[in-house]
Prior knowledge:
The structure holds 2 protein chains of 2 kinds.
Chain A: H1 5-31, H2 39-57, H3 60-84, H4 89-112, E1 129-130, H5 139-145, E2 148-149, H6 150-168, H7 170-180, H8 182-187, H9 192-218, H10 230-240, H11 245-268, H12 273-307
Antiparallel strand pairs in A: 1-2
Helix pairs in contact in A: 1-5, 1-6, 1-9, 1-10, 1-11, 2-3, 2-4, 2-9, 2-10, 3-9, 6-7, 7-9, 10-11, 10-12, 11-12
Chain B: E1 3-13, E2 19-29, E3 33-37, H1 44-51, E4 59-64, E5 67-69, H2 74-79, E6 82-85, H3 97-102, E7 108-109, E8 112-113, H4 115-128, H5 144-157, E9 162-165, H6 174-189, E10 193-197, H7 201-207, E11 210-215, E12 218-224, H8 230-237, E13 256-266, E14 272-282, E15 286-290, H9 297-305, E16 312-317, E17 320-321, H10 327-332, E18 335-338, H11 342-346, H12 353-357, E19 368-369, E20 372-373, H13 375-388, H14 405-417, E21 423-427, H15 435-451, E22 455-459, H16 463-469, E23 472-477, E24 480-485, H17 493-500, H18 508-511
Parallel strand pairs in B: 3-10, 3-11, 6-9, 9-10, 15-22, 15-23, 18-21, 21-22
Antiparallel strand pairs in B: 1-2, 1-4, 4-5, 7-8, 11-12, 13-14, 13-16, 16-17, 19-20, 23-24
Helix pairs in contact in B: 4-5, 8-17, 14-15
The structure holds adenosine-5'-diphosphate and magnesium ion (MG).
Magnesium ion (MG) binds near residues 45, 87 and 166 of chain B.
Amino acid sequence: xxxxxxxxxxxxxxxxxxxxxxxxxxxxxxxxxxxxxxxxxxxxxxxxxxxxxxxxxxxxxxxxxxxxxxxxxxxxxxxxxxxxxxxxxxxxxxxxxxxxxxxxxxxxxxxxxxxxxxxxxxxxxxxxxxxxxxxxxxxxxxxxxxxxxxxxxxxxxxxxxxxxxxxxxxxxxxxxxxxxxxxxxxxxxxxxxxxxxxxxxxxxxxxxxxxxxxxxxxxxxxxxxxxxxxxxxxxxxxxxxxxxxxxxxxxxxxxxxxxxxxxxxxxxxxxxxxxxxxxxxxxxxxxxxxxxxxxxxxxxxxxxxxxx
Amino acid sequence: xxxxxxxxxxxxxxxxxxxxxxxxxxxxxxxxxxxxxxxxxxxxxxxxxxxxxxxxxxxxxxxxxxxxxxxxxxxxxxxxxxxxxxxxxxxxxxxxxxxxxxxxxxxxxxxxxxxxxxxxxxxxxxxxxxxxxxxxxxxxxxxxxxxxxxxxxxxxxxxxxxxxxxxxxxxxxxxxxxxxxxxxxxxxxxxxxxxxxxxxxxxxxxxxxxxxxxxxxxxxxxxxxxxxxxxxxxxxxxxxxxxxxxxxxxxxxxxxxxxxxxxxxxxxxxxxxxxxxxxxxxxxxxxxxxxxxxxxxxxxxxxxxxxxxxxxxxxxxxxxxxxxxxxxxxxxxxxxxxxxxxxxxxxxxxxxxxxxxxxxxxxxxxxxxxxxxxxxxxxxxxxxxxxxxxxxxxxxxxxxxxxxxxxxxxxxxxxxxxxxxxxxxxxxxxxxxxxxxxxxxxxxxxxxxxxxxxxxxxxxxxxxxxxxxxxxxxxxxxxxxxxxxxxxxxxxxxxxxxxxxxxxxxxxxxxxxxx
Lengths: 308, 515
Ligand SMILES: Nc1ncnc2c1ncn2[C@@H]1O[C@H](COP(=O)(O)OP(=O)(O)O)[C@@H](O)[C@H]1O
Ligand SMILES: [Mg+2]
């Protein structure tokens, strides 16, 4: 049994891509004070949206745009229900995710007559892979960094943009203020609802990119429930990093690697498949427990220090 | 001296019908630190919220620099040069001082937030008035005193010429208070007028040039501080509009029921909210506690009810210490509790009248039938009390939330007065309810002490109530008992006011035998 470690690392980065977007999508809402579990369903809808747009528009780019539009639309839907309609955000998100699971299959069936995948009925489109000149010729690094999907590079850029956006722009500052103390923001004339809508819009675009990657890069068709918890994993990744973009990306990368480990072991060894498929989720639980233990210990130290 | 602000004939009635301000006229001059004083609930914050555009008055006009202005919201007020530092800070802890100060009116450069510009502008104002804060510090790392400075900076950054400070010294240490006063003088000298809200008359005497006194929503007058003394102000602040009389026989105190020994409680910010409280309540007497709110009364009631613990000392109820006991255990020892905020601690609003009435006893064997509750018995009891206490409702199944304030309180007292306890802890038992219900509650408190020998501790901000219902009367200030009187109904309002506001204080030997 030999494992191709370089391929494994490249695969890890690839698998991390939708998680990074999911994490950033959840992050922006979280920073505005909203725990948006709906990213899961938003990504699923976008994944279907991307293949439909690509098929009928006849171009991978129209597909990418379609994914983003559906992400945006679903984000606005949740925002409207919770901000304008004052519905409970958690319940809205749970209902929305359930609706997305069933709704995507229903739409798929209407358009293709299939109930599990669009692969037979729709033409498959793939977002191009980018070979970076010079770097691609560097031995090990070339195989890892070069030759990834265009969206993977966009994900890397998005992490930086998110960091910059939160730190340096006025909207970013206001999002942070609203998320932490909406009353304080309101008292200086900032509209909490407006900030909420803006956050959901950004969240929607990111979820759209995540979905487009799933159905036009990870595989080149839509299948039932293909997101399979990646939205939730992104949610916990950003939670572990306390809403910091770079930390969230690193956590996503970690989950991406466990995902890749599962695939690699599955292809190259004869480990039980069911166990391997459990790995990413098991890793998530452990990561959450460990980060929370660290946080509790830290708080305990502070309290003991203050008591003295 | 020119007037920078005038509020003319302001009347404010809250949606629940409460008249918080009645025909108040209040003006502030240039270069003035103007004190706005009055007991809790007198309407000070309401009046200031109107000036800052957070509440709309039913009647009255506001003039800024002689011109009539409509102030519809805080942004309007800020635009007209009015700034307000709220009693509860409105800050974002993880952001820097500069970001907090400029939030909502951020300086921009090339389409981005100009962080350096914000830091520079903030630091400039801070340095100008000797505010000891660094613009680059995170707000969560600041002391309470510094946070208050950030709130003042927020107002100044937005160009405030009239600064409202709502009880600014309530959260400060004496040193921080000193520092604040220096800075307020500096602000005044540079042309900012200040409205200073406080209960602490020595502060008012020290830093203000004028004082306006509110009592029960009415203005009792605006006076020059010069030539005035604390006793005169306290006389205007504390008083009864209508004197209420309750006929009662002299108490016949029996054995001690509640013994409070040197009780100390230190809160989470290290303040001694109870600082050596020491007194006893006997069978058959009503002990009243008067005092400006926020002087430890709430904490005392929470400790006695078992809602919070205490730092040192001891409390015995019927001979057994309550230290470490749960609310249920203390109730089983003989306590009944009319909580200060009935909607939070008094009732479960969404549950039925019946369930609220039996909330303290449904686990007792009497109310059980095998594994289940005895529905018939519970219904009978509920119907009985609805009748006895004249609770106006559609029936025992109606959710308590749908009742009026007075009837909600009747549900609370129906439960607490019938629990069989020999100690009743009554906190603000008639706050915000109709006169009829208030009278019923007061009379019941007195009757239970005379007929059943109940020991009662009555904590109330209503002077009529403490003076008329109580037998012995204690005054609390700064977490201590500062005065004790053997017969509450012989204490004059003036005397009481002087002790409540710290003009006078009794020595331990003067209170000997009265605790
Ligand atoms: N939103 C509200 N609705 C009804 N009553 C209120 C409201 N806000 C305050 N009150 C009542 O108005 C009275 C005056 O309150 P406030 O202005 O806060 O007094 P102060 O600041 O002098 O202590 C109090 O009795 C309070 O209970
Ligand atoms: Mg107030």
